[in-house]
Amino acid sequence: MHVGRPNIADRALFDQYVDQIYEAKWLTNNGPLVQELEHQIQDYLSVKHCVAMCNGTIALEIATRALNFKREVIVPSFTFIATAHALQWQGIKPVFADIDAKTHNLDPKSVENLITSDTTGIIGVHLWGRPAPIGELQKIADKHDLKLMFDSAHAFGCTYEGVSIGNFGECEVLSFHATKFFNTFEGGAVVTNNDRLAEQMRLMRNFGFDGLDRVIYSGTNGKMTEICAAMGLCNLQVLDEVLDGNRQNYEEYLAQLDAIVGIKILRNDVRESSNYQYIVLEVDENFPVKRDQLIEILHVENIRARRYFWPGCHEMKPYRGQTDEANIVLENTLQTAEKVLVLPTGASVSFEDIKSISSLLRLLSETTQ
Ligand SMILES: *Cc1c(COP(=O)(O)O)cnc(C)c1O
Predict the structure, then answer these.
(1) At the top level of CATH, which class does the domain 239-367 belong to?
(2) What is residue 11's three-state secondary structure?
(3) Is 0.90 topped by the overall pTM?
């Protein structure tokens, strides 16, 4: 049982697309399958533009560049390291904000406290597919004349106040990595309702080429290949089934684990759509076994539970000095990173698996220290 076993459609369906690629002999450079995938994603998310890319990290780099982010950009520390790296890689300083311990998402107050004359933007992350406090962040961004965008790598198919993630801020970045809810082997996209921004990012992902040989912009190679788009077109067709399976697993985990003292499942807001891709537990001091020890026990039983984003980006080697120098303590990030444990879900995890994982946790909860 693994966290992140990929969600994939039927092999036969994929083979049909491979045949199409061989017939067309068009492998990359904005091919027909990439264009089709972009259209389908636009429809799925009800967003005006989808600019497909080779992965989510390059999509973050391109989006932040297109928005002309410079000097300092505020990001949560409790996120995947790529949110920070995409900035640092371009000589932009990621300034780490704290999270709300209840939601694991950015704490708007912490964001506002970190704004300086060098701040040019804010990147919100919809952690675990649960929307960041978009309204409050937008207010802060407007008040201080900053640009707001989102790293929405976890949030494909999720909503905020009933509206699809993908429609907020200047733009939102998706990841279609194998471990994500929706995958294209590797892949990503920037989605936006801003025509000019979309156009600019289309140029940037293709070396700035306008037509065959005219370069009108500085750019990089962020293109998605046809084979990746083929995988995406297949997986979009089964996404509702994947979602159903994820939701049922989440509900089963909730039913099984809810009563165990010292363990809390992070719940999704019932008013919003979610992809239920992450089963997130907090293991606190009332549980007789420490979080890391618990992970070891689960691993012995071949249950691939994982820590996530531990110990927070700001504690990782490339960034460690920065918060110390500024005398900033990200209390909620540190505490949350010590508690979080992500359990396996997805099509490869059955109700029987969930029952046996839950029995084990219940048994452990009854042991005395
Ligand atoms: C997966 C992920 C990324 C990076 O996406 P890739 O497609 O793997 O490059 C960025 N941010 C977050 C929050 C992610 O989970």
Answers:
(1) alpha beta
(2) helix
(3) yes
